[in-house]
Amino acid sequence: MKARVHVMLKNGVLDPQGEAVRHALGSLGFAGVEGVRQGKVIELDLADGTTEETVKDMCEKLLANTVIERYEIELV
């Protein structure tokens, strides 16, 4: 089984990487981009029987900084 964890900064948290990407897109001639939020995707190969609750514990303890980031778990 696989799990994908999508980690993004919470709304209201400044995203300097996203702002740099937005600026660079404008410099390359891509008009109309008003905002960019950058995140990460973590793909886990899990042993049979691993629960979504276990993946949630992984996120809470290591994979996401829950003070400034939110995460979504996708079991594949």
Automatic annotation (TrEMBL):
<protein>
    <recommendedName>
        <fullName>Phosphoribosylformylglycinamidine synthase subunit PurS</fullName>
        <ecNumber>6.3.5.3</ecNumber>
    </recommendedName>
</protein>
<comment type="similarity">
    <text>Belongs to the PurS family.</text>
</comment>
<keyword id="KW-0658">Purine biosynthesis</keyword>
<comment type="subunit">
    <text>Part of the FGAM synthase complex composed of 1 PurL, 1 PurQ and 2 PurS subunits.</text>
</comment>
<dbReference type="GO" id="GO:0004642">
    <property type="term" value="F:phosphoribosylformylglycinamidine synthase activity"/>
</dbReference>
<dbReference type="GO" id="GO:0006189">
    <property type="term" value="P:'de novo' IMP biosynthetic process"/>
</dbReference>
<dbReference type="GO" id="GO:0005524">
    <property type="term" value="F:ATP binding"/>
</dbReference>
<comment type="function">
    <text>Part of the phosphoribosylformylglycinamidine synthase complex involved in the purines biosynthetic pathway. Catalyzes the ATP-dependent conversion of formylglycinamide ribonucleotide (FGAR) and glutamine to yield formylglycinamidine ribonucleotide (FGAM) and glutamate. The FGAM synthase complex is composed of three subunits. PurQ produces an ammonia molecule by converting glutamine to glutamate. PurL transfers the ammonia molecule to FGAR to form FGAM in an ATP-dependent manner.</text>
</comment>
<keyword id="KW-0436">Ligase</keyword>
<keyword id="KW-0067">ATP-binding</keyword>
<dbReference type="Pfam" id="PF02700">
    <property type="entry name" value="PurS"/>
</dbReference>
<dbReference type="InterPro" id="IPR036604">
    <property type="entry name" value="PurS-like_sf"/>
</dbReference>
<keyword id="KW-0547">Nucleotide-binding</keyword>
<dbReference type="InterPro" id="IPR003850">
    <property type="entry name" value="PurS"/>
</dbReference>
<dbReference type="GO" id="GO:0005737">
    <property type="term" value="C:cytoplasm"/>
</dbReference>
<comment type="pathway">
    <text>Purine metabolism; IMP biosynthesis via de novo pathway; 5-amino-1-(5-phospho-D-ribosyl)imidazole from N(2)-formyl-N(1)-(5-phospho-D-ribosyl)glycinamide: step 1/2.</text>
</comment>
<keyword id="KW-0963">Cytoplasm</keyword>
